[in-house]
Amino acid sequence: MCVLKGSQTTTLKGLAPMTYGPGSALIIAPGTLHNNRNASKDKEMTYICFHFNFESLGLKSAIISNIANAVIPPDNPVAKASMAAALDIVKYSKGVKLTEEQVNLKIQIRLLSYLYELTEKLSAFSREDQLHFTEREAKVARKMATLITEGIDKSDHHQFSFGDICKQIDISSGYGHRTFRKVYGMTPLRFIDEKKYRKAKLLLGYMEYSIEDVAYMMGASSISNFSKQFKKWSGITPSEYRKQISPKRTVRSVAQSGHFE
How many CA atoms lie within 13 Å of 220's alpha carbon, on the beta-carbon side? Predict the structure, then answer.
C-alpha cells in the first residue's frame, strides 16, 4: 500500500493506528485484519493498493519478520521500490494498446522484479518490534511445510490432515498452527489449499486426463466435490478453467508434482 497524496490512517488488529503520508508504504502480512481511512476530514487522499502472492516461503518469512505491518518511510529503499512497482502496475493496467494477456504478463514480470528488489533491500530496513521467532520454531515450520508439500505431491492420492503432519514430528496441532503462522504469516490450512489448488491447475492442464481423472488424482470423493472445491479456490469450474487454457499442454509431470520431464 503506497500513499500518493494526503495522509492515510491504517489500523491493524492488535496494533495502534498508523498515519502516514506521500511516499510512505505499508506491506500487510497475509491474514492481518485491517482497515484504512483518510486521516483528514477535509483534504483529499490518494493511495495505491495491490495484493500479491508468491511461492517462496523463505521470502515470505523474511518480509513478515522484517518489514510487514509497519510504516516504511519515504526515504527507505523498500518504500521507493514499492512505490515504483505500484505506479508501474497502474500504468500497465491502463495500457490501451495491450491485450488482457499482455497486461497480465507485464504485471507478473514487474511483480517478480519487485520481489527480487525486496531480497536486495530487506537489510536496509530495521525496526525495534521485529516479529522474531526462534530457530526451533523456524525449523519446525520448515519441516511442516516440507511434509505438506511432499504429501500433496505424492501420486498415491493419499488424504492427510494437518493433525497427521503434526503427529509425524511429535507436536500438538495447536502449537503447529501457531508456529506455522508465526513464521510464514499464513495458516497451515491456507498453505495446504494453495498447494492443492496449484496441483489441480497443473493436472487440468494435461488434456489427456478427464476431469474425473483429475478429481481422483486429487483424492476427491467425487467429481462434484472436486468441482465445488475448485470453484471455491478459483471462482470458476474445472471445465471453465480448461476453456481458458491456451495453448493446451501436452507434457506430463513427474508424479503429477509439477516438475516437467
Answer: 21
